[in-house]
Amino acid sequence: MKTTVSSKGQTVLPAELRQMDRVETGQEFDVERLDRGDYRLIQRAPRPNEGVIDRLLA
After folding, report:
1. How far is the CA of 52 from the CAs of 40, 41, 58, in angstroms?
2. In this predicted structure, what is the pLDDT of residue 38?
3. Which residues contact 13 (CB under 8 A, 6 or more apart)?
4. What does the domain layout of the chain look like in residue ranges?
């Protein structure tokens, strides 16, 4: 799939990929440089109790 880097250096994950992997706003990723022009995006695991208070208050 194709994506573009913005003038701010931001890239967008295509909606189809976000939906398949249930990527939500605010989720964090690491970017690993494998070689010149070759990168890997790795989703960070959420902290064990992240979002618990929001779920309890909902």
Report:
1. 30, 26, 10
2. 94
3. 3, 23, 41
4. 15-57
Helix or strand run (H / E) with residue 52: helix 52-57
Which of left, alpha, beta for 37 (phi over 0: left; psi -120 to 50: alpha)? left
pTM score over 0.85:
no
Structure tokens at 8: 């701010």
Cα end-to-end distance, the chain, whole Å: 36
pLDDT tens for each residue of 4-33: 999 999 999 999 999 999 898 889 999 999
Query: Contact at 8 Å (CB) between 27 and 43?
Result: yes
Bridge partners, 42 (sequence order): 30
* Coil/strand/helix, residue 28: coil
